[in-house]
Amino acid sequence: MKWTIAGAIRRTAAQRFGAALCVLLASFVAAAAAHAENVLQDVSYAPLAGGRVQVTLKLASPASGVRAFTTETPPRIALDIPDTRSTASQRHIEVGSGAASAINVAEAAGRTRVVVDLYRVSTYETHADGNNFVLVVNNGNAANAAAVIAAGDQTKAVGAAVQEVSNIDFRRGKNGEGRIIITFSGEGSSADLKRQGDKISLDVYNARLPSQLAQRLDVLDFATPVQFIETHSKGGGAHMDITAKAPFEQLAYQTGNQYIVEVAPAKEKEKRDPNAPPVYSGKRVTFDFQDIPTRAVLQLIAQESELNIVVADSVTGNVTLRLNNVPWDQALDIVLQSKGLDKRRNGNVVWVAPQKEIADREQAMADARLKLEQVSETVTEYIPISYGQAKDIADLLTQKSKQGTGGSSGQAITSGFLSERGRVSADDRTNTLLVVDTPDKVRAIRELVAKLDKPVQQVLIEARVVVAADNFARELGAKFGISGATTVGSSVVSTSGNLNGSQYMTNQALANRLATGDPFPVLPPGVTGGSSTGATNLGDRLNVNLPTSTTNAGSIGLSVLGANVLLDLELSAGQTEGRSELISSPRVVTANQKEANITQGQEIPYSTITSAAGGGALPTVAFKEAALALKVTPNITADGRVFLVLEVKKDALNSYYTNATGSYPIIDKREMTTSVLVDNGQTVVLGGVYEFDKQDSVTKVPFLGDLPGLGAFFRNVKKSNQKAELLIFVTPKILDENLR
Predict the structure, then answer these.
(1) Residue 27: enclosing H or E segment and its boundaries?
(2) Which residue from 614, 623, 641 is spatially nearest to 732, judged by alpha carbons?
(3) What Cα–Cα distance (Å) separates residue 147 from each residue in 123, 141, 617, 727?
(4) What is the pTM of this model?
């Protein structure tokens, strides 16, 4: 009986200890569950009415112990979520709506912090919605108004809540971006920006739009991605539609009483250098192990990366690691390199094995494919060619330059895109390819032909040859002569422009003396008595004969005849001005990388004399071409520009050169050969020649021509200016095949 009671006592104590142990374990489990790590999976936002913004945090399980706090300089709202790590794909999210500027996500010390950057200090609301934690950021105007009302100035609060769009301006940035600047009557405006395709919509909730600003702006001439801006009233606010030319990037920010939208051309993605070191972006891990099995390390990395890692049985050995804050993908590469391993990834499954094992497996698969091709049944396909030549594509598929080695024996494969048993031929009559090969090869060739057999882009090339000439000539001339005769004693003295005129005047004087009965000792030959009167020819009377050479020049003449003196005076002046402009504009359309040639002009005949068989002269007729010609070969580049190899020629007949053998035409040649890279639709000046000929000449009587004033009667002055200019323009335009 004693042992029974003792046994009962022992059993009761054991039961109590077991119960206490169960309670203790349950408390540990509850505590562990309470402190289990949560995961922030995604962060998103959505604009709400009244300029509010809702930020939603998606978690793996309901959040607990979330702590929120704000800062004023700079204005921010921060949420601290304890015992939570982040797997959100974006760590920085641009908002640009209401009072919210951006959202930033950071993880440190076992907690995750979400920070909302604000344009201005604003109130907020938070609540839990299942596994989601929601933060609603108010507009900011309500906070300002509430602060003003609390201070007792309700009139000011009402005024602060009412805004007006005072101006809408558009400017072009230094990098070619379009900048829309919306100015409000005061601070505290609220705007929501959204992009849909090639359009950007902007809603302003708390700002009235004046009627004079409700308009459509055409900003194509600014050469930015922005093309049109259309603004109209919407409810109690305003709505703006911005049409832009893709590809582009938009950015919006608010400063003071201005809301600015920048639309810039999209930046080209930099091509990654295949030789550049890899970029690691995995979650950072810390490992510190001494002589740990390699398979165990791979299992840890699989847990951190959430990937399925399959490790080959041949992976053995241990590894010592000490990695601090290293991305998991970099840690995986380090482990593989240290143990001579390699990996192959298919989706979210990674196979890890020794390098030789992977290489042998891939070689075996390649050999198996080759053997399968050798025994597979061949099929025959007829592939029609629409835009190219079947013969050219057949040569491309079988060209010997496409060589490689394959198979276990390493034999050369020189069939191009075909298998060893494949063959291809072309039917010129129907422009069809005849392909005989395995089904896989035929399918690949059909896909290749579909990519190659496309219409070739066409280019319209327009050239303009401008020949401009400008000439100016001015000439001043004079004719002056004095003629007369008088008697001095028994002598006669006469003067005139030359001896013929002087002799004439002497004869006239003698004749007059004889007529009056005045005796004269000796009469000169041919002089008889009488009363003949008259004047000699004008050319014999002129002392200065320097008239203008200009045809139909203006002139004024004066003759004064006295008792014994005749004075002749003539002043002439002429001015010639001429301008000419010859524009030739040849146009030609050609396919990409195909030469085009267009010519217009005439062949000028000319005669020559050759020796005949019998020794005589045989006249013949030959021809010389004087034409306007354009020869061009365009090449469309990958970025939509056009590289031109062109030759422009504009010849014209000047005159003829004649000698004993015949007449030969003299040709004015204007020719240019060049290569140039031009934007689509851009006009470029290829080159030009500018000639300037200036001549000043003076013909005068020495000393007398230099006299002030009177010297104009004794000189001829001529000035001439001649200008000639040749300019050649070219404009290529890629024709859109969709415009028919």
Answers:
(1) helix 2-34
(2) 641
(3) 11, 10, 116, 71
(4) 0.46
